[in-house]
Amino acid sequence: MGNGQATGAANEGLRIDETAPVISRHSVTVQASAEIVWRVLTDIDAWTTWLPELPYARVETPGPLGSGSVFRWSASGLDIISTIAEVRPYERLVWSGHANGPDGILGVHVWNLAPGDDGLIVSTEESFAGPPVDADPGSIQAALDESLVTWLQRLKDTAETDAAG
What we know:
Layout: E1 22-30, H1 34-42, H2 47-50, E2 57-59, E3 70-75, E4 78-88, E5 92-99, E6 105-116, E7 119-129, H3 131-135, H4 137-164
Antiparallel strand pairs: 1-7, 2-3, 3-4, 4-5, 5-6, 6-7
């Protein structure tokens, strides 16, 4: 996995790059169904409605979201092209992509949804590799941690508002 590619045995699912210099893992419990959380998470064209710091997010590949679907988005001044690697509706979503081109940051992002005692547990983990990460892993780690915590809280707030009707 040192090449930064999302790989893994089929029964294990695809994983982040555990050898990457920056890895972030966070989770939150959501009081909403997996169907609601999944709808919010996978409606990429609507991300900017609940993640206002994203200037744009749009799916480029026609048809339903699936393995091989490509989407473009922007976050923290980075222009990102991502490709969906795995879709297990209501359970798991994985994508990877480059920010600012092939010499930029390679990210692998995994989302998991699982029932918990107190609600739906939504967990996310992401690895970052590439020359910009190697040059400043400390500040990139802090930025990624902050970003994922914000995404989880906003996803939770949006899904719980939708669930409340």
